[in-house]
Structure formats: C-alpha cells, structure tokens
Amino acid sequence: MTAVAAGWPGTVQVRRSYAALVEHYTAMTADYRRFPGLRQELTAFLTELGPGPVLDLGCGAGRDADLAAAAGRTVVLADVTPELLRATTARIAVGAAVCCDVLALPLRSATFAGVIASGVLLHLPRQYTVTALENIRRILLPGGMALISMKYGGRDGWRSTDDFPAPRWFTYYDPADFAVLCGKVGLRVAQLDVSSRKDWFTATTERPER
Fold first, then answer.
1. Is the pTM of this model over 0.85?
2. Mean pLDDT for each consecutive 10-residue tract of the chain (210 residues)?
3. In order of start, what are the domains of the chain with their CATH numbers?
C-alpha cells in the first residue's frame, strides 16, 4: 500500500470525510441494494473486457472489486483514503492495493484491461477532470475500457447529506459534455447511459487500439 500526495488541496478534506465515516460508508455501499441496476451494468462491462487485470479506482468499500474478482478477474484496489483502503483489504481478498490520488496514479502505462471509476471523478473540481481522464487512458491497455460513473443536474460545490454527514466536493456534468471531455483525451465513448439511480450516469469508454 503506497501513499501518494494529493494533486488538489481539497482532496485532503474529502479524504478526512471518508476516514471519519469508514464503518458507516461501508455499511451503506458494500452491496448493491441501494444501487438498482448497477450490478447488471458492471457485469455487462466485465464481460466486454479483453484479457488483463482490472483497476477499481476509488474502490471505497470494495463492492465492485469483489464483483470483478468473482468474475475471475485479477483486481487492483486504489483509493485516496488509507483508512478506507485498510478496512476494505481486510474484508475482501483481491490483488494489490495502492493508496493514491487519481491525479497522480503510480501505475504503469498500458497495464489494465479495464478501469472501474464509480463516483470518484465527481469529487474533483472540473478543471482537474481532464488530468484524471488522461491518467485513466494512460494506464489502459490499447483496446482497454473504463466504466466511469458521474452525476448530473446539480450545483458544483461542497455538500453533506443525511446519509453522509461530512463534506465532500461534487462536480456535476451534462452527460454529453462529459463525453466530449473523454474524447478530448483520446477515450472513445462507446456507450453513455443515464441511470435509473437518481442523478447518476455512466460512460463506457475505450482506449482505441491505435
């Protein structure tokens, strides 16, 4: 488990918020009961991948990593919150784990067949999104794919909720605008889905073979 310094100062607060609520967050998100349709989306995504490992970027409680491992994939966990990552690796048996920021991924280029980035890029102000997407593209194998979940329809800024009573930054995108950003860094958007889960959408993206 390797710690890497954050690239945006606000990440320190986001990390503190998750660290303060590790048990609560794990109880909320360790399975798919609160996220209708997500299991099916991820299963479909995993079946489309070529050979190679999968990175669960912003793995949180490890729900998606556990599903990928059950599908026979070698999975690497990555999260910016060490307390959350330690709790997750104690609960589920997957491959390696790295504590890092999406803006400074200490991972080799062209390594992963797939990247799952579920609700992680939305915790960055939009001026950092391109860097995060570039990092995702860099670590994908040619032909590799990333499933990126984001939110739409809100106002950017810090917010807390009854479900998560600690401040986190949220950036909201129009799905089509987010697809344009993906294209700018060389990620082809193969599918763009507005979810039945409140204000979520997913972009299934691919690093082209050439």
1. yes
2. 63 97 95 91 96 97 95 96 95 89 97 97 97 98 98 96 96 97 97 90 94
3. 11-206 (3.40.50.150)
